[in-house]
Amino acid sequence: MGPLDIAIAGCGPGGLAVALLLKRDGHRVTLFERFEVPRPIGSGLMIQPTGLAVLEQLGLDDVVLQSGARIDRLIGQAGAAGPVVLDVNYAALGRPTAFGIGIHRASLFALLHDAVTAAGVPIVTGRTVAGSDADGAKRYLRFADGDIAGPFDLVVDALGTRTPLAPPTGHALTYGALWASLDWPDGSRFDMAALEQRYRRASTMVGVLPIGTPPNAPRPQAAFFWSLRADQLEAWRAGGLDAWKAEVLALWPACAPLLDQIIDPDQLTFAHYAHRTLRQAAEPALIHIGDAWHSASPQLGQGANMALLDAWALAKGLRESASVAEGLDHAVARRRRHIHLYQWLTAVFTPVYQSDSLVLPFIRDRLVGPLSKLWPATWIQAAMVSGLIGNPLRPLGLAMPCTEPRTVPLRDAA
Question: What is the crossing angle of helices 13-24 and 105-118, to 10°?
Protein backbone atom coordinates (compact mmCIF):
# COMPACT_ATOMS: atom_id res chain seq x y z
CA MET A 1 0.00 0.00 0.00
CA GLY A 2 1.00 3.57 -0.51
CA PRO A 3 0.74 6.15 2.28
CA LEU A 4 -2.66 6.18 3.96
CA ASP A 5 -4.60 9.05 5.51
CA ILE A 6 -5.16 7.84 9.08
CA ALA A 7 -7.07 9.45 11.96
CA ILE A 8 -6.35 8.31 15.50
CA ALA A 9 -8.89 9.20 18.16
CA GLY A 10 -7.39 9.37 21.65
CA CYS A 11 -4.01 10.33 23.10
CA GLY A 12 -3.56 7.48 25.56
CA PRO A 13 -0.56 5.12 25.41
CA GLY A 14 -2.14 3.05 22.63
CA GLY A 15 -3.10 6.05 20.51
CA LEU A 16 0.29 7.73 20.85
CA ALA A 17 2.20 4.52 20.19
CA VAL A 18 0.23 3.62 17.07
CA ALA A 19 0.55 7.21 15.79
CA LEU A 20 4.33 6.99 16.08
CA LEU A 21 4.50 3.54 14.46
CA LEU A 22 2.27 4.48 11.53
CA LYS A 23 4.03 7.80 10.98
CA ARG A 24 7.37 6.02 10.79
CA ASP A 25 5.87 3.68 8.21
CA GLY A 26 5.18 6.68 5.97
CA HIS A 27 1.46 7.20 6.55
CA ARG A 28 -0.20 10.60 6.96
CA VAL A 29 -1.39 10.51 10.56
CA THR A 30 -3.53 12.95 12.55
CA LEU A 31 -4.32 12.58 16.25
CA PHE A 32 -7.58 13.93 17.69
CA GLU A 33 -7.85 14.65 21.42
CA ARG A 34 -10.78 15.97 23.47
CA PHE A 35 -8.65 17.96 25.94
CA GLU A 36 -7.40 21.40 24.95
CA VAL A 37 -3.95 20.31 26.12
CA PRO A 38 -3.20 16.57 25.86
CA ARG A 39 -2.65 15.09 29.30
CA PRO A 40 -2.60 11.73 31.07
CA ILE A 41 -5.30 10.50 33.41
CA GLY A 42 -4.48 8.40 36.47
CA SER A 43 -1.58 7.64 38.75
CA GLY A 44 0.71 4.64 38.42
CA LEU A 45 0.85 1.50 36.32
CA MET A 46 3.29 -1.28 35.52
CA ILE A 47 4.99 -1.73 32.18
CA GLN A 48 5.39 -5.46 31.69
CA PRO A 49 7.87 -7.23 29.35
CA THR A 50 5.13 -7.28 26.71
CA GLY A 51 4.73 -3.50 26.68
CA LEU A 52 8.47 -2.97 27.01
CA ALA A 53 9.03 -5.11 23.89
CA VAL A 54 6.99 -2.58 21.88
CA LEU A 55 8.64 0.43 23.51
CA GLU A 56 12.01 -1.12 22.64
CA GLN A 57 11.00 -1.17 18.97
CA LEU A 58 10.13 2.50 19.31
CA GLY A 59 13.53 3.26 20.82
CA LEU A 60 11.91 4.36 24.08
CA ASP A 61 12.88 1.53 26.40
CA ASP A 62 15.87 3.33 27.88
CA VAL A 63 13.73 6.37 28.70
CA VAL A 64 11.15 4.16 30.38
CA LEU A 65 13.83 2.44 32.45
CA GLN A 66 15.20 5.82 33.55
CA SER A 67 11.78 7.30 34.34
CA GLY A 68 10.29 4.39 36.25
CA ALA A 69 11.19 1.94 39.00
CA ARG A 70 12.24 -1.62 38.28
CA ILE A 71 9.85 -4.09 39.95
CA ASP A 72 11.08 -7.61 40.64
CA ARG A 73 8.36 -8.88 42.95
CA LEU A 74 4.68 -8.60 43.85
CA ILE A 75 3.75 -9.51 47.40
CA GLY A 76 0.36 -9.54 49.10
CA GLN A 77 -0.39 -10.21 52.74
CA ALA A 78 -3.69 -11.00 54.46
CA GLY A 79 -4.27 -8.43 57.20
CA ALA A 80 -1.74 -6.43 59.17
CA ALA A 81 0.23 -9.48 60.30
CA GLY A 82 -1.37 -12.37 58.45
CA PRO A 83 0.11 -14.87 56.00
CA VAL A 84 1.58 -13.99 52.63
CA VAL A 85 -1.05 -15.06 50.09
CA LEU A 86 0.46 -13.59 46.92
CA ASP A 87 4.16 -13.81 46.17
CA VAL A 88 5.07 -13.36 42.51
CA ASN A 89 8.73 -13.16 41.56
CA TYR A 90 9.70 -12.43 37.96
CA ALA A 91 12.80 -14.57 38.50
CA ALA A 92 10.49 -17.62 38.37
CA LEU A 93 10.31 -17.10 34.60
CA GLY A 94 13.98 -18.02 34.33
CA ARG A 95 14.69 -15.02 32.11
CA PRO A 96 17.04 -12.28 33.34
CA THR A 97 15.27 -9.70 31.17
CA ALA A 98 11.86 -10.34 32.76
CA PHE A 99 10.77 -7.64 35.20
CA GLY A 100 8.16 -4.96 35.56
CA ILE A 101 8.54 -1.19 35.61
CA GLY A 102 6.43 0.90 37.94
CA ILE A 103 5.85 4.24 36.24
CA HIS A 104 3.64 7.27 36.59
CA ARG A 105 1.18 7.67 33.75
CA ALA A 106 2.51 11.19 33.28
CA SER A 107 5.99 9.81 32.62
CA LEU A 108 4.75 7.30 30.05
CA PHE A 109 2.57 9.94 28.42
CA ALA A 110 5.43 12.47 28.27
CA LEU A 111 7.92 10.17 26.57
CA LEU A 112 5.37 8.99 23.98
CA HIS A 113 4.01 12.50 23.42
CA ASP A 114 7.51 13.92 22.95
CA ALA A 115 8.33 11.20 20.41
CA VAL A 116 5.08 11.82 18.50
CA THR A 117 5.72 15.56 18.45
CA ALA A 118 9.31 15.07 17.29
CA ALA A 119 8.03 12.84 14.48
CA GLY A 120 5.81 15.66 13.24
CA VAL A 121 2.43 14.07 13.93
CA PRO A 122 -0.23 16.81 14.19
CA ILE A 123 -2.42 16.67 17.31
CA VAL A 124 -5.78 18.41 16.96
CA THR A 125 -7.00 19.27 20.46
CA GLY A 126 -10.38 20.25 21.87
CA ARG A 127 -12.14 17.76 19.59
CA THR A 128 -14.64 15.48 21.31
CA VAL A 129 -15.37 12.58 19.01
CA ALA A 130 -19.07 11.67 18.80
CA GLY A 131 -19.07 9.00 16.08
CA SER A 132 -17.94 7.99 12.63
CA ASP A 133 -19.53 7.39 9.25
CA ALA A 134 -18.40 4.95 6.58
CA ASP A 135 -18.28 6.18 2.99
CA GLY A 136 -17.32 3.31 0.74
CA ALA A 137 -13.76 2.34 1.62
CA LYS A 138 -13.22 5.52 3.65
CA ARG A 139 -14.56 6.93 6.90
CA TYR A 140 -15.36 10.32 8.43
CA LEU A 141 -15.11 11.37 12.08
CA ARG A 142 -17.99 13.28 13.65
CA PHE A 143 -17.45 15.62 16.61
CA ALA A 144 -19.74 16.73 19.42
CA ASP A 145 -19.97 20.27 17.99
CA GLY A 146 -21.32 18.95 14.66
CA ASP A 147 -18.11 19.27 12.68
CA ILE A 148 -16.69 16.40 10.64
CA ALA A 149 -13.18 15.46 9.53
CA GLY A 150 -12.07 13.24 6.70
CA PRO A 151 -12.38 11.25 4.65
CA PHE A 152 -9.74 8.91 6.05
CA ASP A 153 -8.50 5.60 4.75
CA LEU A 154 -8.52 4.38 8.35
CA VAL A 155 -9.82 5.54 11.73
CA VAL A 156 -8.12 4.07 14.81
CA ASP A 157 -10.29 4.13 17.91
CA ALA A 158 -8.13 4.51 21.03
CA LEU A 159 -10.79 6.30 23.10
CA GLY A 160 -10.99 3.75 25.88
CA THR A 161 -13.81 1.90 27.59
CA ARG A 162 -16.51 4.51 26.98
CA THR A 163 -15.70 5.05 23.31
CA PRO A 164 -18.53 6.50 21.21
CA LEU A 165 -17.12 4.71 18.15
CA ALA A 166 -18.29 1.26 19.30
CA PRO A 167 -21.62 -0.11 20.49
CA PRO A 168 -22.05 -0.40 24.27
CA THR A 169 -21.22 -3.81 25.64
CA GLY A 170 -20.02 -5.49 28.82
CA HIS A 171 -20.73 -4.29 32.34
CA ALA A 172 -19.31 -2.01 34.99
CA LEU A 173 -17.39 -3.72 37.78
CA THR A 174 -18.65 -3.40 41.33
CA TYR A 175 -15.27 -2.37 42.71
CA GLY A 176 -13.02 0.49 41.69
CA ALA A 177 -10.11 2.12 43.44
CA LEU A 178 -8.99 5.40 44.97
CA TRP A 179 -5.57 6.43 43.64
CA ALA A 180 -2.99 9.03 44.63
CA SER A 181 0.59 9.81 43.66
CA LEU A 182 2.62 10.58 46.78
CA ASP A 183 6.26 11.25 47.62
CA TRP A 184 8.22 8.14 48.52
CA PRO A 185 8.68 8.39 52.30
CA ASP A 186 12.23 8.56 53.65
CA GLY A 187 13.20 5.66 55.86
CA SER A 188 10.06 3.68 55.03
CA ARG A 189 9.81 -0.07 55.27
CA PHE A 190 8.40 -0.36 51.76
CA ASP A 191 10.38 -2.32 49.19
CA MET A 192 11.49 -0.05 46.34
CA ALA A 193 11.59 -3.04 43.94
CA ALA A 194 8.19 -4.51 44.77
CA LEU A 195 4.49 -3.87 44.52
CA GLU A 196 3.15 -4.52 48.02
CA GLN A 197 -0.48 -5.10 48.96
CA ARG A 198 -2.53 -5.86 52.06
CA TYR A 199 -5.97 -7.48 52.00
CA ARG A 200 -8.90 -7.80 54.35
CA ARG A 201 -10.98 -10.59 52.85
CA ALA A 202 -11.65 -9.66 49.21
CA SER A 203 -13.51 -6.43 49.95
CA THR A 204 -10.55 -4.33 51.06
CA MET A 205 -7.16 -3.91 49.45
CA VAL A 206 -4.45 -1.31 49.90
CA GLY A 207 -1.35 -1.18 47.74
CA VAL A 208 1.88 0.74 47.27
CA LEU A 209 3.75 0.76 43.95
CA PRO A 210 7.08 2.56 43.33
CA ILE A 211 6.70 4.67 40.15
CA GLY A 212 10.04 6.46 39.82
CA THR A 213 10.26 10.23 39.43
CA PRO A 214 7.49 11.77 37.26
CA PRO A 215 8.08 14.89 35.12
CA ASN A 216 8.66 18.02 37.21
CA ALA A 217 8.58 16.00 40.46
CA PRO A 218 11.44 16.73 42.88
CA ARG A 219 11.74 13.17 44.17
CA PRO A 220 10.64 9.57 43.56
CA GLN A 221 6.99 8.79 44.14
CA ALA A 222 4.68 5.94 45.01
CA ALA A 223 1.26 5.13 43.63
CA PHE A 224 -1.05 4.51 46.58
CA PHE A 225 -4.38 2.77 45.99
CA TRP A 226 -7.35 1.65 48.06
CA SER A 227 -10.12 -0.58 46.69
CA LEU A 228 -13.67 0.64 47.15
CA ARG A 229 -17.13 -0.33 45.95
CA ALA A 230 -18.32 2.26 43.46
CA ASP A 231 -21.64 2.60 45.29
CA GLN A 232 -19.81 3.45 48.53
CA LEU A 233 -17.89 6.41 47.14
CA GLU A 234 -20.28 9.04 48.50
CA ALA A 235 -20.33 7.34 51.91
CA TRP A 236 -16.53 7.39 51.90
CA ARG A 237 -16.55 11.13 51.22
CA ALA A 238 -19.14 11.74 53.92
CA GLY A 239 -17.16 9.71 56.45
CA GLY A 240 -14.16 12.04 56.28
CA LEU A 241 -10.45 11.47 55.88
CA ASP A 242 -9.71 10.77 59.53
CA ALA A 243 -12.05 7.79 59.75
CA TRP A 244 -10.69 6.39 56.48
CA LYS A 245 -7.06 6.85 57.53
CA ALA A 246 -7.75 4.97 60.74
CA GLU A 247 -9.12 2.08 58.68
CA VAL A 248 -6.04 2.06 56.44
CA LEU A 249 -3.65 2.15 59.39
CA ALA A 250 -5.45 -0.71 61.11
CA LEU A 251 -4.78 -2.82 58.02
CA TRP A 252 -1.27 -1.52 57.27
CA PRO A 253 0.40 0.73 59.87
CA ALA A 254 3.43 1.35 57.63
CA CYS A 255 1.24 3.58 55.42
CA ALA A 256 1.31 6.39 58.02
CA PRO A 257 3.93 8.56 56.21
CA LEU A 258 1.94 8.26 52.98
CA LEU A 259 -1.37 9.10 54.63
CA ASP A 260 0.22 12.15 56.29
CA GLN A 261 0.59 13.63 52.79
CA ILE A 262 -3.15 13.36 52.09
CA ILE A 263 -4.87 16.41 53.55
CA ASP A 264 -7.68 16.83 51.02
CA PRO A 265 -10.05 14.19 49.58
CA ASP A 266 -9.44 15.71 46.14
CA GLN A 267 -5.91 14.31 46.23
CA LEU A 268 -7.52 10.91 45.66
CA THR A 269 -9.04 10.05 42.31
CA PHE A 270 -11.61 7.29 42.02
CA ALA A 271 -11.19 4.96 39.05
CA HIS A 272 -14.21 3.09 37.68
CA TYR A 273 -13.58 -0.19 35.88
CA ALA A 274 -15.56 -2.22 33.37
CA HIS A 275 -15.28 -5.65 31.80
CA ARG A 276 -16.08 -5.62 28.09
CA THR A 277 -14.88 -7.15 24.83
CA LEU A 278 -16.17 -6.15 21.42
CA ARG A 279 -17.29 -9.03 19.27
CA GLN A 280 -16.11 -7.13 16.20
CA ALA A 281 -12.81 -5.32 16.67
CA ALA A 282 -12.64 -4.02 13.09
CA GLU A 283 -15.13 -2.59 10.61
CA PRO A 284 -14.58 -1.06 7.17
CA ALA A 285 -11.85 1.58 7.62
CA LEU A 286 -12.15 1.39 11.44
CA ILE A 287 -10.32 -0.56 14.14
CA HIS A 288 -10.64 -0.43 17.93
CA ILE A 289 -7.50 -0.90 20.05
CA GLY A 290 -6.75 -1.07 23.77
CA ASP A 291 -9.68 -0.52 26.13
CA ALA A 292 -11.88 0.50 23.19
CA TRP A 293 -11.66 -3.15 22.08
CA HIS A 294 -11.20 -4.94 25.42
CA SER A 295 -11.23 -3.66 28.98
CA ALA A 296 -11.18 -5.34 32.37
CA SER A 297 -10.06 -4.84 35.93
CA PRO A 298 -6.69 -3.10 35.42
CA GLN A 299 -4.59 -5.95 36.83
CA LEU A 300 -1.48 -3.85 37.50
CA GLY A 301 -1.78 -1.75 34.35
CA GLN A 302 -2.18 -4.70 32.01
CA GLY A 303 -4.49 -2.55 29.88
CA ALA A 304 -1.67 -0.22 28.80
CA ASN A 305 0.54 -3.16 27.87
CA MET A 306 -2.27 -4.76 25.87
CA ALA A 307 -2.84 -1.46 24.05
CA LEU A 308 0.84 -1.28 23.09
CA LEU A 309 0.64 -4.81 21.68
CA ASP A 310 -2.50 -3.83 19.73
CA ALA A 311 -0.69 -0.81 18.31
CA TRP A 312 2.23 -2.96 17.15
CA ALA A 313 -0.14 -5.57 15.66
CA LEU A 314 -1.94 -2.89 13.63
CA ALA A 315 1.26 -1.36 12.28
CA LYS A 316 2.61 -4.80 11.40
CA GLY A 317 -0.67 -5.86 9.79
CA LEU A 318 -0.78 -2.80 7.53
CA ARG A 319 2.92 -3.10 6.74
CA GLU A 320 2.53 -6.66 5.47
CA SER A 321 -0.81 -6.36 3.63
CA ALA A 322 -2.02 -5.22 0.24
CA SER A 323 -5.16 -3.46 1.52
CA VAL A 324 -6.49 -1.81 4.66
CA ALA A 325 -9.10 -4.52 5.14
CA GLU A 326 -6.48 -7.25 4.92
CA GLY A 327 -4.21 -5.38 7.32
CA LEU A 328 -7.00 -5.06 9.89
CA ASP A 329 -7.82 -8.75 9.59
CA HIS A 330 -4.18 -9.66 10.21
CA ALA A 331 -3.93 -7.32 13.21
CA VAL A 332 -7.07 -8.70 14.86
CA ALA A 333 -6.10 -12.31 14.17
CA ARG A 334 -2.70 -11.86 15.82
CA ARG A 335 -4.20 -10.39 18.97
CA ARG A 336 -7.53 -12.20 19.40
CA ARG A 337 -6.26 -15.31 21.22
CA HIS A 338 -4.16 -13.40 23.76
CA ILE A 339 -6.95 -10.93 24.44
CA HIS A 340 -9.56 -13.61 24.99
CA LEU A 341 -7.19 -15.48 27.29
CA TYR A 342 -6.55 -12.44 29.49
CA GLN A 343 -10.17 -11.39 29.52
CA TRP A 344 -11.05 -14.86 30.82
CA LEU A 345 -8.25 -14.90 33.39
CA THR A 346 -9.22 -11.45 34.66
CA ALA A 347 -12.87 -12.44 34.99
CA VAL A 348 -11.85 -15.50 37.01
CA PHE A 349 -9.28 -13.92 39.34
CA THR A 350 -10.66 -10.42 39.97
CA PRO A 351 -13.32 -11.65 42.45
CA VAL A 352 -10.57 -13.32 44.49
CA TYR A 353 -9.16 -9.88 45.35
CA GLN A 354 -12.08 -7.51 44.74
CA SER A 355 -15.52 -8.79 45.67
CA ASP A 356 -17.89 -9.24 48.58
CA SER A 357 -17.29 -13.00 48.67
CA LEU A 358 -16.34 -14.61 51.97
CA VAL A 359 -15.59 -18.02 50.48
CA LEU A 360 -13.05 -16.95 47.83
CA PRO A 361 -10.67 -15.14 50.20
CA PHE A 362 -10.95 -18.03 52.67
CA ILE A 363 -9.78 -20.44 49.96
CA ARG A 364 -7.16 -17.94 48.77
CA ASP A 365 -5.59 -17.46 52.19
CA ARG A 366 -5.64 -21.06 53.39
CA LEU A 367 -5.19 -23.11 50.25
CA VAL A 368 -4.19 -21.17 47.15
CA GLY A 369 -1.70 -18.95 49.00
CA PRO A 370 0.47 -21.80 50.32
CA LEU A 371 0.23 -23.79 47.07
CA SER A 372 1.18 -20.74 44.99
CA LYS A 373 4.66 -20.80 46.52
CA LEU A 374 5.38 -24.14 44.85
CA TRP A 375 6.44 -24.86 41.27
CA PRO A 376 4.82 -24.73 38.71
CA ALA A 377 2.47 -22.22 40.37
CA THR A 378 5.39 -19.83 40.80
CA TRP A 379 6.00 -19.83 37.03
CA ILE A 380 2.31 -19.61 36.14
CA GLN A 381 1.80 -16.59 38.41
CA ALA A 382 4.84 -14.79 36.99
CA ALA A 383 3.75 -15.54 33.41
CA MET A 384 0.25 -14.20 34.09
CA VAL A 385 1.43 -11.01 35.76
CA SER A 386 4.06 -10.33 33.10
CA GLY A 387 1.54 -10.74 30.30
CA LEU A 388 3.60 -13.56 28.77
CA ILE A 389 1.18 -16.42 29.28
CA GLY A 390 -0.12 -17.48 25.90
CA ASN A 391 3.13 -16.38 24.23
CA PRO A 392 1.79 -13.12 22.72
CA LEU A 393 5.13 -11.85 21.38
CA ARG A 394 5.81 -14.57 18.81
CA PRO A 395 2.80 -13.90 16.52
CA LEU A 396 3.83 -10.24 16.46
CA GLY A 397 7.45 -10.91 15.55
CA LEU A 398 8.57 -9.47 18.89
CA ALA A 399 11.13 -10.83 21.34
CA MET A 400 11.76 -10.41 25.04
CA PRO A 401 13.18 -6.93 25.62
CA CYS A 402 16.87 -6.39 26.27
CA THR A 403 17.84 -4.66 29.50
CA GLU A 404 21.19 -3.40 28.24
CA PRO A 405 21.23 0.40 27.87
CA ARG A 406 21.04 1.53 24.27
CA THR A 407 21.40 4.97 22.76
CA VAL A 408 19.11 5.12 19.75
CA PRO A 409 18.05 8.47 18.27
CA LEU A 410 14.27 8.50 17.89
CA ARG A 411 14.46 9.28 14.18
CA ASP A 412 16.64 6.24 13.54
CA ALA A 413 14.90 3.76 15.82
CA ALA A 414 13.58 0.59 14.22
Answer: 20
Vertex 84, ends 342 and 338: CA angle to 5°? 10
For helices 49-57 and 302-319, the axis angle rounded to 10 degrees is 40
The predicted-structure confidence for 16-60, as pLDDT tens digits, reads as follows 999 999 999 999 999 999 988 776 777 789 999 999 999 999 999
Cα separation, 106 vs 177, in Å, equals 19
- What is the dihedral angle through the alpha carbons of 19, 25, 26, 32, rounded to the nearest 10 degrees? -10
Residue closest to 356 by CA, chosen among 201, 197, 250, 233: 201
Domains in the chain: boundaries: 5-170+274-406
pLDDT at 188: 84
The whole-angstrom separation of Cα 353 and Cα 76 is: 10
Quote the CA–CA distance of 33 and 10 in Å, as a whole number. 5
CATH class of 5-170+274-406: alpha beta
- List the one residue out of 295, 291, 399 whose CA is nearest residue 14: 291
Please report, in angstroms and rounded to a whole number, the separation of the first and last CA atoms in the chain.
20
